[in-house]
Give the backbone structure.
Amino acid sequence: MIELLSPAGDFEKLKIAIEYGADAVYAGVSHFSLRCHSGKEFDYETFNKAVKYAHNKGVKVYATVNAFPFENQLPLIESHIKKLKEIGVDAFIISTLGVLYKAKEIAPEIDIHLSTQANALSSWDYMAYRDLGVKRIIAAREATLKDLTKIKEKVPEIEIEIFVHGAMCFAYSGRCLLSAVQFGRNPNKGSCANDCRYPYVLYAENPETGKLFKLEEYKDGTYIMNAKDLCLIEHIPEIIKSGVIDSVKIEGRTKAPYYVGVVTKAYRDAIDEYIKTGKCECKKYLNEILTTKNRGLTEAYIVKRPYEKDDTQNLETSLTTGDWQVSGIVTEDGGHFMCKYKTYPGDVLEIVLPKNVKIESCENEIGKIYRENGKWLLKLNKIVTQSGKELSSVHSGNLNPIKLPCKLPYLTFLRKEDK
């Protein structure tokens, strides 16, 4: 059975990933992780609770220890590995040989997953890492399914994990120093400033005269390094059919909770449909994914080599775009939601449910929940806070839980199309 692996940038996202169908999640305490500056993620106390929560749900947790440490950080990373061992994570995600060696010494009982940043591309790489005790390799982004099939034939003992969705780095296997040059922030120590997303102005210089000529494709600059987002939802059938992929991974520890839920559920449904029926109407799941913010989508290199692709860049804008807005998320008591967008009396919101839950219609003075054209909808007649105060509208800055006409499952999303 192929594993669905989802991002868990914090405790709430971990819960969402699990409720929307993930078999495993990956996360990290804010040390020695490649997301340590863009998202604070967990501290040791909350991470310990999160791991216990996941294990109680039958879900594995893989800890990211994938930064590239310098000599003066070695005592700290040794201590970090010991704490993660005590917490009881299911695997370490590691990029470097030194950290791999130390992790095997400190916690030989915990599996090692080799990070995509180690750039394992051939069966020789896989054999070498197998002999060093690696259980799983997260394939280099540049690898094709054809390559991985050949590798699996030669090194069947190694599990193979691939990214199927999320942001792409323009650099070779993510090895970029652009942020270090411009801001003194080292991407390979977890502090990428996403410089590839910025617009750049290009100049051509005449060395004899010193004259600069401005080269410009768009009025606000040229996004020469801006990659589209990866999306392999329509390739799920051939990925599973290949029989060589053990885990499919969704990028996005710093993405919004809605992204984690919707994308996880889309891939869960696509995987389940194909395994159950031998086919997948994956287009409908792609349409769900398109309700999340994105920079444009590409299949990247899983079926073609990099030099055969010409649609992996978005040269117009680095901003994530989309027509759907998340209006709210249901609180733990099930009777309220926290507003995430402007909402008014009379609004009709679509209900996005976690995996494998059922609800029923209801109607009262607060509003009604009903099914129409295959979708569950919520109409709010009035907006009433938990304390009973009626509002003319509610916006994302309002931290008062808003009453629902009847209970919905915890972590259900409410959304509307913002045309």
Observations:
- The chain has two domains: 3-173+228-308, 324-417.
